[in-house]
Amino acid sequence: MSVTVGVLSVQGDVYENVVASHEALNEMNISGDVIPVKTPSAISDVDVMIIPGGESTTIGLLTLAGDTLATLGERIRGGMPTLGVCAGLILLAGDVTDRMLGGTGQPLLKVLDIKLERNSFGRQRDSFETTLSLEPLGIADFPGVFIRAPSITAVSPDIDVISVYDNRIVAVRRDNIIGTSFHPELSGSTELHKYLIRMATK
Questions:
Q1: Is 183 an active-site residue?
Q2: Of 23, 27, 135, 183, which is the active-site residue?
Q3: Residues 86, 117, 191, 193: which is the catalytic one?
């Protein structure tokens, strides 16, 4: 079994997710590769996709070019295991507002039927770390790193809530898709990356 992990590489924490994915593959003794991707053809060649944290509006606008966003949506709807991190979670959402600005009008994949609030925990200076439970994934204690993090304000019945912090939803799953408000690639733990890779090996 060989797994190719793709990290959407138009903007954001690309390098950190590449490193975490390499470490996860090594720890699992699974052969494979981790590649930055930004074109439809590259997206078609990977088994797993990570949409990193960064500037969600920038990522959305840059992926509109050359049908990259459309191809990404097709692969995700087709069952490709996908992790959306912070800005990546925003891109996956169906309805997004900003805590300060209201409506955003930004490009969205709309593959998760959730409502989401950007910058829900404050701006850059309000960044923090805390221990989270991701018990539905079999992960009891996970270091949550929150940087200008969104929160999920509503979910449809087909969405599984996998973590809550301060009475706000910060991680969800639906079938092949996981979305987190926090940054697992900055946590020092590869547990979420390993969970994502396992989804491609089943």
A1: yes
A2: 183
A3: 86
State CA 116 to chain mean position distance: 14
Token duo for residue 164: 């809550």
Contacts 24+ apart (CB under 8 A), 119-127: 119/148, 119/149, 119/150, 120/149, 120/150, 120/151, 120/168, 120/181, 121/146, 121/148, 121/149, 121/151, 121/181, 122/148, 123/148, 124/148
What's the domain range around 105? 2-201
- Total structural domains within the chain: 1
Closest CA to 199 of 111, 85, 35, 76: 76
Query: Among all chains, which residue has been given the structure tokens 């969600």?
Result: 56
Quote the pLDDT of residue 106: 76
Mean pLDDT, the chain cut into blocks of 10 residues (202 residues total): 92 93 96 94 95 84 82 96 95 85 74 92 81 95 94 96 96 98 96 96 85
- Integer angstrom CA distances of residue 182 from 23, 35, 114, 151: 19, 22, 17, 9
Find the catalytic residue in 23, 74, 117, 185.
185
pLDDT in the model for residue 7: 97
